[in-house]
Every structure is written in structure tokens, then in C-alpha cells.
Design a protein that fits this description.
- It is a single chain.
- Helices cover 5% and strands 49% of the residues.
- Strands 36, 37, 38, 39, 40, 41, 42, 43, 44 and 45 form a ten-stranded mixed β-sheet that branches. Strands 1, 2, 4, 5, 6, 8, 9, 11 and 12 form a nine-stranded mixed β-sheet that branches.
- A hairpin with a 6-residue loop joins strand 22 and strand 23.
């Protein structure tokens, strides 16, 4: 297991591979293979009995700072072989940004029926894949196939679970979620600056999580009385208003607490809708919200519109503030969207200069005013201004006459003190980065009051008084204004992982092992910790343990929960079989591991009983060599 995986495991609180199966569906065998198959090709038109296929993409935390590829096509297939194209325009997606987030790529109208498979085209020709090395520096790696050849276009067919086909009915919305499993699909070689890709995409019509969903589109209409608006979807990072780029219409519901930022001004609820309705030029809209799993309706939490996301006169970047000196910000992890349409990951830090004329807003802000004093170290921001990187000078964004938006920031750490109104952390990460990357000078009114990652003080109205000491937690919120610490951070949401989430990630090297287990049965597998090829770790909260040090060994069992999912991936055949029953899963795996086929990887999410040495998996994926 690479140092890169271990470092991310510590920062993210559980191994990046643990949520790989979040989109896997239960039931009988399903698979994924290269090739598209035959059947009649259908291009859907406007039909009264059509239904909507809402397609979303997601990923889980992993080792990539950027993993940007082009999704060129999505075809849905009926049992009779009829195929329907549902993605009219290529969509460029950075999967590294889809942590705790789903992205809508299409909401096309398609004929009613039962769809049993989906074929996706993925183009790696202009991929941007960036990883972090052991020193914390960013490195670009080139995608190659198993033979070491440059990877270009790949076509993958996902056979849906027989118990959970995609059923399209007239005038109804049905959802299909895709998950490109980055950890299972990639092996990074930092020395060679390459990543070997064997892509595995899982699909589910019943994704078990409740992550927020984002969508980009052109405003089409507003109904203030109904508290709704309709957007004409566009591929992400494609801000074209041309009708030919449309990926379908989506109705968005709003509430009194929905926040709007329109052309740099903030509103809440009906005031925002009224402002939208009054615009003569229909703007680009970026909506972040939630999907009701029963009705598949979408409700907006936060909305950006107009020049707040699409300013043709300015460049835009997003990243986290590593240091601040006066009105100069050092920003890392930068993703740059240039006004000429280019975008990508920017290596190294970028200087962002702000001033008294910089307009500052905050994500979710519905009223009030903010200024550049609210921008402090550790805060994730989006900034608009004029970018320059000419000659030997450091890249910089001049936002003195531009804008800065404070974004929700994710921190994690181990609790060292907890009481009503707040807690103190031994900080593990800020926005996924090690605290050692940050310079906290100036965050307090005096050096003695500057933020200390060993004693990071968090204020919150949430009930955190009962969190046990030494437990691990992740929090979402905003960093305290510069020079105003303590507290250092103001949390609005927290996730307590004290005893509810654990994970294990095992690998047996590039060639794998034909004897990875001491014993196998329908009740569980006993991992052979004495296998010389085995490398692995168990994550529980923020603690990561080498599996070789487990005193009672490691027994893997399967959960009986309704949403439990188990999968067998075949690397050479590029197929995935899904199971909802651990008994069925274990029976199939036993038949596979007969001596010719080797086990390469195993990743799982679930609960660990330390006194018994038993890991009960809710999600489990194994990768075989065949």
C-alpha cells in the first residue's frame, strides 16, 4: 500500500477506498464489459409519453488532486437491444471534486420501458490527472493501459442488477447514478509519472447515500408563486448557451431558506426568485441542492447565477488559503477557469491579491455584508479577477476589483476537548490537506492567539458536548475572520465517526495472490496475514492500523442490511458482478479462487469489532486478475 494512500487515509479519517461501493446496487449478478453490443439505435425526441432519465456522476475521497476526463456518451439499453443516446454533448468532469457530491450530467427525455444496461464512452486523450507525492507536491501522471500504452477512448457497458433495472414511465423522473471507482481503477507509479487505468464504473438506480447534488444550466423560466424555476442543463465547465448543448430540462424547487447570489448580490427565498424572474437575459445557473429519493424532485439549497459564475471579463479560481500577509493570499490546490474557456489544475500555489474594492460574499449568505477581513488561513475560496503567469514570475490573480466567495470548508481531526458551544481538535486536515502546509501567522490578534493545529478551537451551535475524547470527526463550516481567532473555525455541520464507520483496504501487489485467505465460507473469510505479498491497513475514525499488527487476525463477514452490496471485479475482462447476498458473493468468489485466478485488491466499508477481530462489511469490492 503506497504512502500516498496512507497519508490520505489519515487526513480523511478513513481510507479513500472505503466508499468505492457507494453506488453499487444489490441483487443478482451484474457486470461491466468493454464493447457496446448491437440493437436498434434510438435518438429520443419530444414525446408525450416519455419519461426523464436523471443521470448523475459521483466519486469518493481518494489519492487524486485532479482526475479530469471527458464523458463522451451515455447510451441506455433495453432488454430487446434497443439503445437510446441520453448524453447529447460531451461532459468534462473532475472526479476529484465529486467528494460528498453528485453531479447531474443529463436529464434527457427517453421512451418508457425497462432499461437493463448503460454504455459509457470515456475519453482520456486530454485527461488531467494530478496526484500528491510524499512531500506534498503535486505531480501530473499520464494515463496508460495495462500494456503501458497511452490511454485514449474507452467504452464500458454496465449491466444493471436484475432486481433493480431502470424503469422509465411517462412524465416521471427516474435516477441512475454512476460511480467511477478511482481507487479500484488506478495504480499510480510516481517514479514513472504514470497511472495504469483499468476503469470500473458501478451503477445504481437506488444510490444509498444522501449527498448534495449540483447542476449547471441556463435559466429557462421562473414561477414565483410555485417557488420553482426551470433550467436547461449544460455539461459542467461548458458555459455555452447554445440549444444544441442542452442535456435536458430540470425543475428546481426552492424554500424560504434557499440562498441566492445573482450577479454578485445576495438574496434569500422569494426575493431571489423575484430577482431571477426580472432578468431579461436568461443567465447561467449553478444550483446545489438535494434530491428526494421517493419522488426524485430537486430542492435548491444554494444558487449562483449570472456573473457570479459566468463572468466573461474575469478569470476564476478555487482553492484553499495557505497563508495571508496583508492583502496578499497564498492559495493552494487551485483549479483555474479562464475567461477564454480553458480550465485545469494549477501546480503550486497562486497569489491572490485583494483590496477595499474586492466584493466578498459567503456560500449560503442570504443577507448582510462581508469584507476582505473575513478571508483567513484555511478558508476555501472562489475568486474572480485577472490571472497572470508570464515570464518567471509566480502565477497571480488580481482580485482587487474582482470578487471572492467564501466556500464551505471541510476540516477533520481528533477531539481533545468537548463542551457546550464548541470543541478542540488535534487537526488532521483542512480541505483534505495536511495542516503543516498552512502558515497560521496573523489568524489571531497576537501571535499567542494564532490558530494552533494541535489545539484547533471550533465554535458551533451543534450538540457536540457528548463526543468522547480521542474520537474522530469531520466538520463543515467557515474559518474565523483573519486576526479574530480564537475560535479558529465555526462549524455548521459535523460527522461523528466514533464507532459507526470503519474501513479496510488490502492489496497483494501487481500479480496478486491465489491463496489470500486461510479459510473461506458463507459466513466469512479469514485473511492470511502471513501472506508475504499482503499490504493493508484498517481505518477506524482517524486512526489507521497496519493489518499485520491486529492481535486476533482479520475475519471478513458480510452485513445483512438491505443496502449491503458486494462486488467482484475482473481486471482483464473488465467486468463487475454485483451481489446483495454475502452468501451468493462468497460462493462465487470461492469458485473463482481455484488456483489460476489471483486476488489483487480488496476494499470494504463497515464496522470493526476489535475484541473479536471481525470486520462486518456493508460495502465490499474485490478485484481479480482475470
Amino acid at each position: 500500500m503506497s504512502r500516498n494512500i496512507i497519508s490520505h487515509a489519515i487526513r480523511n479519517g478513513f481510507l479513500g477506498a472505503l466508499a468505492l461501493l457507494a453506488a453499487a446496487c444489490g441483487g443478482s449478478d451484474s457486470g461491466m464489459s468493454s464493447g457496446g453490443g448491437g440493437g436498434t439505435q434510438v435518438t429520443p425526441g419530444n414525446c408525450q409519453d416519455c419519461g426523464t432519465a436523471l443521470l448523475t456522476m459521483t466519486d469518493a475521497p481518494g489519492d487524486f488532486l485532479s482526475y479530469t476526463v471527458d464523458i463522451t456518451s451515455v447510451q441506455l439499453k433495453k432488454a430487446d437491444g434497443t439503445q437510446v443516446q441520453t448524453l447529447p454533448a460531451s461532459s468534462r468532469i473532475d472526479f476529484a471534486q465529486l467528494v460528498d457530491l453528485d453531479e447531474v450530467i443529463s436529464a434527457g427525455q427517453i421512451p418508457p420501458g425497462e432499461y437493463v444496461a448503460a454504455t459509457l464512452g470515456v475519453d482520456y486523450s486530454s485527461a488531467s490527472i494530478v496526484v500528491e507525492d510524499s512531500s506534498g507536491a503535486s505531480t501530473t501522471v499520464a494515463p496508460v493501459d495495462a500494456n503501458g500504452q497511452a490511454l485514449t477512448q474507452v467504452q464500458m457497458t454496465v449491466q444493471l442488477d436484475n432486481r433493480n433495472h431502470l424503469r422509465i414511465t411517462p412524465r416521471r423522473v427516474s435516477r441512475l447514478s454512476f460511480d467511477l471507482d478511482l481507487q479500484a481503477s488506478n495504480v499510480v507509479d510516481l517514479a514513472a509519472h504514470k497511472v495504469t487505468v483499468s476503469p470500473f464504473i458501478l451503477a445504481s438506480v437506488t444510490p444509498p447515500d444522501t449527498r448534495d447534488t449540483r447542476r449547471l444550466g441556463v435559466l429557462k423560466s421562473v414561477d414565483v408563486a410555485a417557488s420553482t424555476y426551470t433550467v436547461d442543463l449544460r455539461p459542467f465547465h461548458e458555459k455555452s448557451r447554445e440549444a444544441s448543448r442542452s442535456s435536458g430540462d430540470v425543475l428546481v424547487h426552492t424554500t424560504d431558506t434557499t440562498s441566492f447570489e445573482i450577479n454578485g448580490q445576495v438574496y434569500a427565498g422569494s426575493a431571489g426568485l423575484t430577482q431571477l424572474a426580472g432578468l431579461t437575459d436568461k443567465p447561467m445557473m449553478l444550483t446545489l441542492g438535494t434530491i428526494d429519493r421517493s419522488e426524485q424532485t430537486f430542492t435548491a439549497l444554494r444558487v449562483l447565477a449570472g456573473t457570479s459564475i459566468d463572468d466573461s471579463n474575469r478569470d476564476a479560481l478555487s482553492g484553499v488559503v495557505l497563508a495571508r500577509s496583508g492583502n496578499s493570499l497564498t492559495v493552494g490546490g487551485v483549479r483555474l477557469d479562464r475567461r477564454d474557456g480553458r480550465f485545469g489544475f494549477e501546480h503550486g500555489a497562486v497569489t491572490v491579491n485583494v483590496g477595499v474594492n474586492t466584493k466578498v460574499t459567503r456560500e449560503g449568505q442570504g443577507s448582510g455584508a462581508m469584507g476582505i477581513g473575513d478571508i483567513s488561513v484555511g478558508q476555501r475560496i472562489e475568486a474572480m479577477g485577472m490571472f497572470s503567469a508570464s515570464g518567471s514570475g509566480s502565477p497571480a490573480l488580481d482580485a482587487t476589483a474582482g470578487r471572492v466567495r467564501l466556500m464551505y470548508t471541510r476540516i477533520s481531526g481528533t477531539v481533545t476537548a468537548a463542551a457546550v458551544g464548541g470543541l478542540t481538535l488535534r487537526l488532521g486536515s483542512i480541505d483534505g490537506r495536511d495542516p503543516s502546509r498552512f502558515n497560521f501567522a496573523g489568524t489571531g490578534p497576537a501571535p499567542a492567539q494564532d490558530a494552533d493545529p494541535a489545539n484547533y478551537e471550533v465554535a458551533t451551535a451543534l450538540n457536540v458536548a457528548g463526543i468522547p475524547l480521542s474520537s474522530y470527526t469531520r466538520l463543515f463550516g467557515f474559518v474565523t475572520a483573519f486576526g479574530m481567532a480564537p475560535p479558529d473555525f465555526r462549524a455548521q455541520t459535523f460527522l461523528d465517526f466514533t464507532d459507526t464507520r470503519a474501513g479496510v483496504a488490502l492489496t497483494w501487489g501487481m500479480t496478486g495472490s491465489t491463496t489470500p485467505f486461510i479459510s473461506m465460507s458463507s459466513t466469512g473469510f479469514a485473511v492470511d496475514l502471513g501472506n508475504a505479498a499482503l499490504r493493508g491497513a484498517l481505518g477506524l475514525g482517524g486512526q489507521v492500523t497496519d493489518v499485520h499488527t491486529l492481535p486476533l487476525g482479520l475475519m471478513l463477514k458480510g452485513s445483512t442490511e438491505d443496502e449491503a452490496a458486494f462486488a467482484i471485479a475482473h481486471r482483464s475482462r473488465r467486468e463487475v458482478e454485483n451481489f446483495s447476498s454475502f452468501t451468493d458473493f462468497s460462493a462465487k468468489l470461492t469458485t473463482e479462487l481455484t488456483g489460476a485466478t489471483a486476488l489483487l485488491k480488496l476494499v470494504a466499508e463497515g464496522q470493526f469489532n476489535a475484541p473479536q477481530g471481525v470486520f462486518t462489511a456493508r460495502r465490499l469490492l474485490v478485484v481479480l486478475s482475470d
